[in-house]
């Protein structure tokens, strides 16, 4: 039965996942979200000074100074996460330009202006409102950048440009080449904005919000999150890195994080559990599928090869990296480990999500750097109960993996015994 399932996955699902990973638009989105990681971390750090007065009181000198300078302290968040849509549009345009072999500065310019034409709103006094410059504008930033670069390429393929004599400097020539392209790109986005405002009476980003809201909202369900972890483990089991899903999941988790931070600042309840910090600290605790249990038992294995793999995989696992055990044990394409990894692993991964759903654990407003298990969970939530949740995940993992490890160990020991007998007979 497993062989049939493996052939099915190899024939149908693996090529689909590989195509998704190689698809230029999804690849550009994935790379752009990875590029935003420093902004997420720095933006989250800005919340720590804002929370200190609540912990130590507002009348001491430290709190007084922090409150007086809170606007300056929050500036990295305002120009970082608060303007993320703008940066995502630029980075997507950059990677698409490289993939399409187009003029990179020109594509970035068109991608950014395409986003701005869709996202710029105005205050009553005529000033520019940055409401959709941040994570609320992520989806429209993706749309704007992709369409702008594709229109750029369409114009180039049809020679819809101004050709200058060869004696004209290259930078001047490219500027004139951009004029017809700019007319097409800007004209298209002005038309989209006109349709949204005049016919539907909403800003363009709201159109995307209305269309995507059922899917986005569903990701804040622990059931949907558990299914996502099942899909991630299934992909990894067949050797496909689950990062192929990040173009879909990262914009949603990033938007939720920004909303949590805003609610935290305004004193409102924090509503979303699906954030990058939560996913890293609990969903990928010791790595995808919570594989620490296998690492633990391998360390004490009687099989020499497994004992060495366990020792090598221990330190990476404590920092949420489990590729050594995935490919070293191996878990990948190993039918013995299918149940603990693909079926039981997602259940262990979603314990944090369920705890947050039932208000047994604070929801995350912080995306810590990779600081190691337990510490990362505490920093993501600033809740001592995170240590209990992570400890529970670790203990369950040790228990879950034990019977499957013993089956595999017996097979490894028999292989080692056969090899030793062959060597002895040859000696």
SSE blueprint and pairings:
Elements: H1 2-22, H2 24-35, H3 37-45, H4 47-56, H5 61-68, H6 70-73, H7 75-79, H8 84-100, H9 104-119, E1 121-122, E2 128-129, H10 138-157, H11 170-199, H12 204-218, H13 222-237, H14 246-266, H15 276-283, H16 292-299, H17 304-317, H18 323-328, H19 338-349, H20 351-357, H21 375-381, H22 385-426
Antiparallel strand pairs: 1-2
Please outline what is shown here.
With 427 residues, this protein is an all-alpha fold. It has helices spanning 2-22, 24-35, 37-45, 47-56, 61-68, 70-73, 75-79, 84-100, 104-119, 138-157, 170-199, 204-218, 222-237, 246-266, 276-283, 292-299, 304-317, 323-328, 338-349, 351-357, 375-381, 385-426; strands at residues 121-122, 128-129. It is built from 22 helices and two strands.
Description:
- The chain is mainly α.
- 72% of the residues lie in helices and 1% in strands.
- It is built from 22 helices and two strands.
- The chain has helices at residues 2-22, 24-35, 37-45, 47-56, 61-68, 70-73, 75-79, 84-100, 104-119, 138-157, 170-199, 204-218, 222-237, 246-266, 276-283, 292-299, 304-317, 323-328, 338-349, 351-357, 375-381, 385-426; strands spanning 121-122, 128-129.
- Helix 9 (104-119) packs parallel to helix 11.
- The longest helix has 42 residues, at 385-426.
- The mean pLDDT is 85.
């Amino acid at each position: 039965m497993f062989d049939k399932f493996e052939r099915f996955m190899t024939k149908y699902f693996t090529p689909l996942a590989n195509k998704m990973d190689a698809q230029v638009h999804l690849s550009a989105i994935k790379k752009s979200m990875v590029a935003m990681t420093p902004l997420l971390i720095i933006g989250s750090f800005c919340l720590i000074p804002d929370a200190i007065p609540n912990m130590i009181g507002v009348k001491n000198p430290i709190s007084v100074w922090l409150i007086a300078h809170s606007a300056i302290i929050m500036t990295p968040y305002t120009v970082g996460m608060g303007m993320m849509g703008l940066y995502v549009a630029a980075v997507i345009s950059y990677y698409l330009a490289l993939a399409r072999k187009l003029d990179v500065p020109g594509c970035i310019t068109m991608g950014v202006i395409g986003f701005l034409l869709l996202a710029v709103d105005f205050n009553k006094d005529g000033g520019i409102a940055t409401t959709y410059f941040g994570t609320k504008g992520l989806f429209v930033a993706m749309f704007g950048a992709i369409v702008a670069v594709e229109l750029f390429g369409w114009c180039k393929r049809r020679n819809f440009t101004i050709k200058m004599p060869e004696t004209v400097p290259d930078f001047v020539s490219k500027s004139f080449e951009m004029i017809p392209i700019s007319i097409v790109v800007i004209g298209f986005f002005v038309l989209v904005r006109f349709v949204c405002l005049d016919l539907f009476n909403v800003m363009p980003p709201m159109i995307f919000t209305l269309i995507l809201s059922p899917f986005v909202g569903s990701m804040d369900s622990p059931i949907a999150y558990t299914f996502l972890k099942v899909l991630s483990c299934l992909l990894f089991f067949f050797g496909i890195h689950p990062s192929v899903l990040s173009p879909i999941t990262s914009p949603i988790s990033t938007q939720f994080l920004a909303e949590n931070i805003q609610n935290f600042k305004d004193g409102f309840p924090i509503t979303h559990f699906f954030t990058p910090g939560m996913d890293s600290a609990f969903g990928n605790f010791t790595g995808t599928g919570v594989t620490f249990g296998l690492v633990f038992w391998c360390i004490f294995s009687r099989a020499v090869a497994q004992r060495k793999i366990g020792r090598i995989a221990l330190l990476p696992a404590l920092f949420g990296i489990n590729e050594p055990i995935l490919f070293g044990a191996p878990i990948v394409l190993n039918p013995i480990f299918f149940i603990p990894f693909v079926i039981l692993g997602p259940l262990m991964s979603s314990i944090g999500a369920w705890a947050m759903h039932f208000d047994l654990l604070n929801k995350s407003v912080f995306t810590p750097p990779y600081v190691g298990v337990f510490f990362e969970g505490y920093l993501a939530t600033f809740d001592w109960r995170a240590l209990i949740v992570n400890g529970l995940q670790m203990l369950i993992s040790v228990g879950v993996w034990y019977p499957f490890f013993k089956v595999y160990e017996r097979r490894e020991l028999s292989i080692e015994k056969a090899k030793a007998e062959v060597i002895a007979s040859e000696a």
